[in-house]
């Protein structure tokens, strides 16, 4: 049955391609074999009722937890098919333009991308807060804060730079960073606050977690980029380093940033087409709202308790009906 | 690689014969090295070119990007060309995916077995069936089919463009000369570096993934086909012409049939290259096995990515064996018509049997047949991580402190003109004036791109990785050449090391060594050792038995035989191995950027994932190519100079091209 469905879709897409022939092909006519739930560019071919929702999966556990719960509800309660796509943050936004991505479930600020894709290109829209408060910062293990007085003040970081020296940072202190696609002001902050540090890229969330765990267990000094909400705070005692506090607009020019990160209201972004034609799936995404504790519980199950994302989501859904039943559209 | 067999005159004497006899042969290089060292000590720290994230070339490329982004739906180039290409490729991919999904898992396995039977008999049929069955057992049936669809799309397009171009290039040396540098660039350019431009032009999704894969997999299709057509015996072509055949007839009836086996190799290599792009393609939303590997990498979960890695290796083996046996099969049927019919009938029966079986078994691969081993694998990795920590830490620190750091501080601390002078001197000595000028030109161009410092950092890791690779490659190659049993033992390991996506072994390396340049060196070494071992083994094995016997009868010991006879006579193979090692190591530069190597690799990675770094990423991709050409000119020079005394330098160069595509 699924095959027949796809054949009809393909026929529809080909017909559309031909129809677009006289005026040249623009980007959004070619949304490929995507099955929007109903209506939309490929609407003539798509059957009514449940369809496919394409969710971008950005590379950190908290994001995956939110996406897993939304996917579980879409599939089990509303009968949709969910396609998960492993994509970096900024690349996901590109997917709004041609229909390869319908939903980003946890967006960290990205004012520049909002300006481009929501205001200028008009291919995406905001779909409300996830309820999670997100804040990025620089962290050290708590034992360092106890042992070295004043180390949590950025003004004293240079004094302690020698502690953080590694084989990769040369004669400077090391600031360990995560995935290259994460939101980052690190280079600018170091330069503008004249810190004697070098950013060393660990490459993934996992590299950060591993280093932080070892820093606690083996009492190894570590200064690293991290963010809240994260389950790691329940396992490893961490202390935040105080950079000059955030003030409105202090991060406007990415080259001149010399302040801490703002606390962000994490939100969902969906493609404009999905907002218009996504039906119940869109309603569910819009209604989705939970707390940092909820997210940490699911993320912790995925990362530490050996559950797959699907299993962790199922477990949470079974235990928290009161929370999610409000999200299901009537 | 057989021409070493001709006994060459005593190795070193010839090129220096023309110099004045009084000067010892080591005096000039030594003086040069001393002068460079002195200049370094005097000028250290001056005329360095520190990195600037806002260099003018980056800004300029960013502006181009902004223009494309703004005009994608207005400019006629896009409306009438680029967007249609995307629609066509996307449509082809969807169609193939649909066709592959059609017969169900039993049907597709049956069809694969039938194909295997047709090309290589029951052995290949069995292999194909087992291979396809294993995709299901690994729990990856859907993903494997998606990957197969992507690979087929890219391969079909590559062959549709590559084979005609290859035939043409085989007939016309002029076109060949024109194409060679283009193909060189396509192969050295890190695939990551054109992902971002791909997304810019074709958006994310399977279409742009297929096109990116095609860029990478088309060079062997063109090169090997050209080689195949060119190598058809001129006598046969002349005979055909003198019998009155037109050029078209000669091509169709003589040249193509005679080149058939080699063209089969071209198809085979194109498929292998396309498969190696699977992981990278997943970064731009291509569905399939690559996405499992990316997921494992971002979660630092080896158990998650290992099954996908195995599935890719299995797919490579099955496709390799099927295409190789198809190429090896003689085109003329033996055994008459009935046998031919029986042959086809068995294949059809296998395929239909598979489809029929699909009626009995569930349409989805049964979940209870799936073997899961993520848990034990992860436990093993964790165990290794904790129990080997002391050793791995020491190895890493030693290498970093003793090799990487000193070399890097010399290369980045020296004035640019001094590094350029050193490259010039080296390339001149190994290859002569022309390669030297090209090498220095490439090196200075990286400075113009604003990437001097990062190029020097990358050069450091590449040099160290090549040195380690050569050392290991020589040891294993010599051992394999001396003991056939050892060779048979290590061959499957080498095969696996070459086809396994680098990301799979990158992760345990990351766990053991942390995000450091050493991890990057480690990954490059694993990737580059196999071809080096093969070339060395081949070279030593091909030393003429007559020479060996002569040495033995003169009373030389095993050790003398190795050092005085085998290694010197295999010198050219070893130089070729060095050249190959460099090319392979460079291919890993970007992957290294993902695990802390910094330099150009990281620039490329961050250019892909951060829009503001687009320009820097693209420029870094170009700089990697320039660095590759520079190193190639230096080592290739050594190769050609050494070969100038042997009777058939041209065939060897051809072999080398072939090796590079392999």
UniProtKB/TrEMBL annotation, chain A:
All residue ranges annotated as the ABC-type glycine betaine transport system substrate-binding domain in the record: 52-318
InterPro entries, per the entry: ABC_Gly_betaine_transp_sub-bd
Keywords: Signal
Annotated signal peptide: 1-25
Gene Ontology CC: one annotated term: ATP-binding cassette (ABC) transporter complex
Entry-linked CDD domains: PBP2_BCP_2
Pfam family, one: OpuAC
Entry GO MF terms: transmembrane transporter activity
Gene3D superfamilies: Glycine betaine-binding periplasmic protein, domain 2, Periplasmic binding protein-like II
UniProt source species: Planobispora rosea
Name assigned to this protein: Glycine/betaine-binding protein
TrEMBL record, chain B:
GO cellular component terms given for this protein: ATP-binding cassette (ABC) transporter complex
Keywords: Cell membrane, Membrane, Transmembrane, Transmembrane helix, Transport
GO function term, MF aspect, one: amine transmembrane transporter activity
Pfam families in the record: BPD_transp_1 (PF00528)
Biased composition (Low complexity): 639-650
GO biological process entries: choline transport; glycine betaine transport
Keyword presence, Transmembrane: yes
Keyword Protein biosynthesis applies: no
Predominant location: membrane
Region Disordered, annotated ranges: 638-662
Subcellular location: Cell membrane; Membrane
PANTHER family: GLYCINE BETAINE/PROLINE BETAINE TRANSPORT SYSTEM PERMEASE PROTEIN PROW, GLYCINE BETAINE_PROLINE BETAINE TRANSPORT SYSTEM PERMEASE PROTEIN PROW
Domain ABC transmembrane type-1: 144-323, 455-635
TM regions (residue ranges): 26-43, 77-100, 120-141, 148-171, 191-216, 261-286, 298-319, 340-361, 435-453, 459-481, 502-529, 581-602, 614-631
Name of the protein: Glycine/betaine ABC transporter permease
Membrane topology annotation: Multi-pass membrane protein
Family: Belongs to the binding-protein-dependent transport system permease family.
